[in-house]
């Protein structure tokens, strides 16, 4: 995927993850996009290792894998902030 596609996908995934998070986020729009992009990358790597599914284009499986990666990153970042 191109850079603009990753940014758009990251924005969508980041917004969905921030909506699913019951605690308010203070990261702003840039933090949301970064969380979404990194979540998509992490989800793509883990999805490829475990299920053979990658984030290749806009489809349901890419969205689910990216959301799982972003949720994992969100949980890790909230946990590390409390330490």
Brief rundown of the structure:
By secondary structure, the protein is an all-alpha fold.
What do these coordinates show?
- With 83 residues, this protein is mainly α.
- Helices cover 77% and strands 0% of the residues.
- The N and C termini lie far apart (36 Å).
- The model has no long low-confidence stretch (mean pLDDT 77).
Annotate the secondary structure layout.
Elements: H1 3-20, H2 28-50, H3 60-82
Helix pairs in contact: 1-2, 1-3, 2-3
Key terms:
77% helix, 3 helices, 83 residues, mainly alpha
Classify the beta-strand content into a percent band.
Answer: under 5%
Helix proportion range: over 70%
Query: What's the average pLDDT?
Result: 77
Question: What's the assembly state of these chains?
Answer: single chain
The radius of gyration is: 12 Å
What is the terminal-to-terminal distance?
36 Å
Which consecutive residue ranges, at least 5 long each, have pLDDT under 50? none
Count of distinct strands: 0
Largest sheet: none
Question: Helical element count?
Answer: 3
**String of helices and strands:** HHH
Overall number of structural domains: 1
Shape: globular
| Structural class determined from secondary elements | mainly alpha
């Amino acid at each position: 995927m191109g850079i603009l596609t990753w940014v758009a996908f990251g924005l969508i995934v980041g917004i969905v993850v921030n909506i699913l998070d019951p605690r308010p986020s203070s990261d702003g729009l840039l933090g949301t996009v970064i969380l979404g992009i990194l979540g998509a990358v992490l989800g793509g790597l883990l999805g490829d290792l475990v299920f053979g599914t990658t984030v290749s284009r806009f489809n349901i499986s890419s969205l689910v894998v990216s959301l799982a990666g972003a949720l994992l990153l969100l949980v890790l970042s909230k946990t590390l902030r409390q330490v």
